[in-house]
Every structure is written in structure tokens, then in C-alpha cells.
Amino acid sequence: xxxxxxxxxxxxxxxYYRHLRELEAExxxxxxxxxxxxxxxxxxxxxxxxxxxxxxxxxxxxxxSVQELREHIGMILGVDxxxxxxxxxxxxxxxxxxxxxxxxxxxxQTLAIFDADxxxxxxxxxxxxxxxxxxxxxxxxxxxxxxxxxxxxxPQAQEVADDLCRNGITAIWNFVPADLKLPPNTTxxxxxxxxxxxxxxxxxxxxxx
Amino acid sequence: xxxxxxxxxxxxxxxYYRHLRELEAExxxxxxxxxxxxxxxxxxxxxxxxxxxxxxxxxxxxxxSVQELREHIGMILGVDxxxxxxxxxxxxxxxxxxxxxxxxxxxxQTLAIFDADxxxxxxxxxxxxxxxxxxxxxxxxxxxxxxxxxxxxxPQAQEVADDLCRNGITAIWNFVPADLKLPPNTTxxxxxxxxxxxxxxxxxxxxxx
Lengths: 209, 209
Known about the structure:
The structure is a homodimer.
Chain A: H1 7-25, E1 30-31, H2 33-40, H3 44-54, E2 64-65, H4 66-77, E3 83-88, H5 92-99, H6 102-105, E4 108-115, E5 124-125, E6 128-132, H7 136-142, E7 147-150, H8 154-166, E8 171-174, E9 187-190, H9 193-208
Parallel strand pairs in A: 3-4, 3-7, 4-6, 7-8, 8-9
Antiparallel strand pairs in A: 1-2, 5-6
Helix pairs in contact in A: 1-4, 2-3
């Protein structure tokens, strides 16, 4: 990807990736900017601009090769490689992430779940062992882990995040509705589920008036 | 809220609401734009601009009343009222939503879960009954429902969404990675969990270079 890419384009990348995977699954081999635009509810010129931004693709009048473009965007996203994850917290959210088929299918492999609850430690969620959170440091020293999924109760979140960062974790997918203080080299993506419902509620109210 | 409010301000509203609730729980009664800014990682002038946009609050030099501002933003978000929800799909995501404490605590009450799996129908998730999805239409005719949480397998999503809209549902919280075709009066908020992981992967890769 050449030079500066706006946050808006970055946020559209996963959408491109998903649509291209769907097209590939449907057996579509070529697609025009017009066709992709209709599917993604973007204008053809927006699509061309975005794709130019990703590195220049397609030839005038030929459209894009679905497979090439999907592979290229997958490479930009870094989902052409395997990411090794641990999940912190074996509650509802941790369970949902651990039991998802789509994450491992996209190279996001969960190695272990950590929890503090003696009733959960030693059990499995799907095929993944729930380990004592006290053993987290030892585990991280022995196993290379790329991403930590944080789904512990809010009061524990900062302490667990500190532990993760001290032990070399630099990427956190945070489901806890809390603003974590993290070292500057840490990459974090927050998923605040409540906020989705609140935005929905706001938009419903707006329509009334 | 007076006049046009930008999407960026709307997206910050739940953050304000969360921080103000936390401040209230901590017993803080007044807060300056500076103090709120430090907490939310925004500048004091950004905070003042946003809050003016919500309808004009606080007096120069006195800061904001935490409770008043929290109540006002809650009202703007519409979370001062009860929202009645049904969950479509009793899988991992449906379960996680049904078992969350924080949604009912904020007035989002789940009345029922619908699934097509005979093994799930008749069971309960938390205290919520899983009903046969074939009975959805009857249920919606009898009960006022504000929000449908869509968490069915992708191939079923459009059909279930059509059923919901035909039966008066106008707000959908969609967890299915699919672009639904919906009537123009439907409000939808999409949560595409995979996209969060893909953005995380992208940002990790960007840091390497």
C-alpha cells in the first residue's frame, strides 16, 4: 500500500475482503468497479479510488480479477498469515470468540483461555482448555502469542492488560468497556458492544422526530 | 439536540455516557471540560464543542454537573427508556447477548430467543426461553418488540430479516456478516466481529514496517 491511507479506507478494507471472498465462493472470476460498487453500496469511482489506493489493480475495461484482488487485500490486512491468540476470560464473550468457526478459518487460532474461576479452570470450551490465569506469565514465556482477546470483568481489565504487555503482548482485541492505559507500542482494537445498542437506540429515536 | 449533528459526534455519545456513568459511580459531582477531556483523551475545547452540540450545558468556570450531563446524554441516546428485544439465533453470539448483565441494566430487555434447532427449542439461556423460529410471526403479533438482535447463520439471515420487517420490526442489531436488504424505514447497526480482528491484524502489520 503506497503512502498514506485514510482511516476511512482502512475501515472499508474488511468489507472488500468479505465481498471478494463471497464472490469467489459464488464462482465469480472478474468484476467491474461498477459491479463491486453495486454490491458494496459504493460508487464505481469510489471503488476505483480505493483500489488505486491499495496499490493499482485491474486494467481499463477488463475489471478486476476477484481472486487476485482478494489475495492482495488479504495480504494488506495481514490475514494471509496465522495469528496465535489467547483469550482472557471464559465468560460469555470469551466463549463466543472461542467457539466461533470463522476466526480459525481466517487464521486466528486460539491457543488457550485463561480465567480465575476455579469452576472453569480445567474445563474446555470447544476444544480449548481453560487455564488458571495465574499461569498466564509462564504460558506467554513458553509460547509465541500474537493477539490477546481481553474479555475479563472491567475491574480486572487493567491489571490483566498490564500482565499481558509485560510479557510481550503488543496486540489486544478489547471487549471490556474500559479505556486501558497501554504502552505506546501496543495495538488495540476496542469492541464496545453496548455502544452498538446505544447508537441503535439513538437512531431509532431520531427517526421518531 | 439542536440541528445537524455529525456522525463523529454521534459515535462519541456512548463514550460520554459511559465515562459519565463511571464518574457518577465514583462519586464525582462536577467535572471541567479539561478533566473530562483528560479522561476521554480529547481536548477540553473538543469536549466543549461536543457538549454545546448536545444542547448547551455548564457555566463558564463551574464545569458540568456529572449527573445532569449523564441524564441529558442518556435521554439523547434514548437509553432512559426500556427497549424490548428478541434474539434470533441461540448460538454463541445470541447466548452472549442473552447472558449479558449490562444490556438489561441499561433497559435493553430480552423477551425471547428464537432458533430452528429442535435441540435448543424449549431450553432456556439464562432465564430466557428459546422458542421455535416458526412461532416468530405469532409472537411479534402479540408482543410489542422494539429491537431484533440478528445472530443466525449467514444463509438464513435475509429470510429472517424479511420476516422481522414484515412483522413490524424497524430496528435490527445485526451480528451476521452479510449486507441485508431492508426496507428504508429500518434502522440497522452492524457488528461485524471479524472486521475488528482484521483491522487489528492490519494495524499490527503496519507497525512492523
